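> call design_seq(struct)
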């Protein structure tokens, strides 16, 4: 197993180094394991019995996560920092901590510059992390207002849960019909999303939150990842920026539920493999995998690799301030090593995609 793992790492490193030397970044796939610290990932690898794809990445760094008003961030502030390069207060989506200005996310800039854009998550599409890429609201709980922001975002593809926030609203508006008027296909399962020839898709796969892996969510996240990448890549000269989130790793952490965390982390890593396979074939795609924060204060107090078991302990039911790893593969991957703050992602990506010089 050690020889095979070392050989795989060498292959990944060779491919990535060759890509760095020869290719420019055309596409970025940014993947967030919500609440996924190092313990969560290693527990998943131990349980799986083979190396996770993200642990095969040739470049690794560490990222600080604190928010503007708290040593321990929430997903809204972290998502805003990662996407927009601006620290804000916990609970705020895409607005500065003084509440006076909207931040501008890398996805919004990419869209303005003519790149295609996509989001795929295992939570509602209005949840804090995806919302940070397109919405601007003072409170992350304002789901109906966040849904209205999605209507204005001009994103190409967005898939997750949250149908009620679009179609069963207190203001009686049906945003799904308004989205259709703007040229989107609004679909309710992945089969519909796959079969449509329309490149503009809003997929609302559940009324509220999506089920867990153990509740038979199935292969939704890896399938969604492949679907988004394949559709955005077709006839697309300008490239794309995509954000994929393994949302429910965090929920397992809040519940201090080891198996929930492991199941969701393995599922997320399966989506990472889809992204890496695309990047290896394409040659111009950078894959970034990180977390918005760690959840649960998860410690691996014991275990057995041969028996594929871990003994987890948790110090909290909330988030922690522990820095999180970042794993990168593809052209430009070497720019994400060392220790840096989560606000630095935006400028690094803008520079690598050369968005400063691109014009519509």
């Amino acid at each position: 197993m050690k020889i095979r793992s070392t050989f795989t790492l060498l292959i990944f490193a060779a491919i990535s180094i060759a890509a760095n030397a020869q290719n420019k970044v055309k596409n970025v796939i940014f993947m967030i394991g919500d609440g996924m610290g190092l313990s969560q990932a290693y527990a998943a690898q131990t349980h799986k019995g083979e190396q996770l794809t993200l642990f095969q990445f040739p470049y690794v760094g560490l990222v600080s996560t604190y928010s503007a008003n708290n040593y321990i961030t929430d997903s809204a502030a972290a998502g805003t920092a990662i996407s927009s390069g601006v620290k804000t207060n916990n609970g705020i989506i895409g607005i500065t901590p003084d509440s006076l200005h909207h931040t501008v996310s890398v996805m919004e800039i990419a869209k303005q510059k003519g790149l295609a854009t996509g989001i795929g998550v295992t939570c509602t599409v209005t949840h804090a992390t995806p919302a940070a890429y397109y919405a601007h609201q003072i409170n992350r709980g304002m789901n109906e207002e966040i849904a209205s922001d999605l209507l204005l975002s001009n994103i190409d593809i967005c898939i997750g849960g949250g149908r009620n926030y679009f179609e069963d609203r207190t203001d009686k508006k049906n945003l799904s019909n308004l989205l259709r008027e703007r040229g989107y296909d609004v679909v309710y399962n992945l089969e519909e999303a796959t079969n449509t020839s329309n490149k503009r898709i809003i997929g609302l796969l559940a009324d509220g939150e999506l089920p867990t892996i153990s509740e038979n969510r199935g292969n939704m996240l890896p399938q969604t990842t492949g679907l988004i990448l394949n559709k955005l890549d077709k006839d697309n000269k300008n490239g794309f920026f995509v954000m994929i989130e393994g949302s429910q790793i965090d929920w397992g952490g809040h519940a201090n539920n080891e198996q929930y965390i492991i199941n969701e982390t393995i599922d997320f890593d399966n989506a990472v493999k889809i992204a890496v396979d695309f990047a290896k074939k394409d040659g111009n795609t950078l894959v970034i995998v990180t977390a918005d924060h760690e959840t649960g204060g998860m410690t691996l107090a014991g275990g057995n690799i041969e028996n594929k078991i871990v003994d987890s302990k948790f110090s909290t039911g909330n988030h922690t301030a522990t820095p999180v790893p970042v794993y990168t593969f593809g052209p430009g991957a070497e720019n994400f090593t060392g220790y840096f703050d989560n606000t630095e992602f935006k400028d690094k990506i803008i520079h690598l995609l050369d968005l400063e010089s691109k014009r519509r």
